[in-house]
């Protein structure tokens, strides 16, 4: 599975961005998710979704971020609203092994990773 993330950029505080992650390859992962890594910090779980539409969010981000998925396009999205400078990070999309259906929030549960897309929120 190859993952290609896009949609990052520079936005002012209070603004919105939508990230996309398109999967390609011979297999399709059931569970896909978003993680982020701010400068000098570890990788943080943001949200994940399953093929059937189940979702899981970081408690601290739920309400501002919405994850969705278009299975016909093999694409996952992350709508981010009311952004703050604390949301500045590189955002990575990730996928679990194709046979797995459980949504986990730990990074080491995901075996496929995209290259990351940078989000910068200015104050």
Describe this structure in words.
The protein is mostly beta strands. The protein has strands spanning 2-6, 9-12, 17-24, 31-37, 43-50, 55-57, 65-70, 75-80, 89-95, 112-113, 117-122. The strands form two sheets. Strands 2, 4, 5, 6, 9, 10 and 11 form a seven-stranded mixed beta sheet that branches. A four-stranded antiparallel beta sheet has the order 1-3-8-7, with no helix packed on it. 32% of the residues are buried.
Main attributes of the structure:
single chain, about 120 residues, mainly beta, 7-stranded mixed sheet, 11 strands, about 50% strand, globular
Count up the helices: 0
- Mean pLDDT score: 95
Report helical residue fraction: under 10%
Poorly predicted residue ranges: none
Distance between the termini: 37 Å
**Helix-strand pattern, N to C?**
EEEEEEEEEEE
Radius of gyration: 13 Å
Strand residue percentage:
over 45%
Largest sheet properties: 7 strands, mixed
Query: Would you report the number of β strands?
Result: 11
* Structural class category: mainly beta
Coarse morphology: globular
């Amino acid at each position: 599975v190859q993952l290609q993330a896009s949609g990052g950029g520079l936005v002012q505080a209070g603004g919105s961005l939508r990230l996309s992650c398109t999967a390609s390859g011979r297999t399709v992962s059931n569970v896909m998710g978003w993680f982020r890594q701010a400068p000098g910090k570890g990788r943080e779980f943001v949200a994940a979704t399953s093929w059937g539409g189940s979702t899981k969010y970081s408690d601290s981000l739920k309400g501002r971020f919405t994850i969705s998925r278009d299975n016909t396009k093999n694409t996952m999205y992350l709508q981010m609203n009311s952004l703050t400078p604390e949301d500045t990070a590189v955002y990575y999309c990730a996928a679990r092994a194709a046979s797995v259906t459980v949504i986990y929030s730990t990074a080491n549960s995901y075996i496929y990773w995209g290259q990351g897309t940078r989000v910068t929120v200015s104050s």
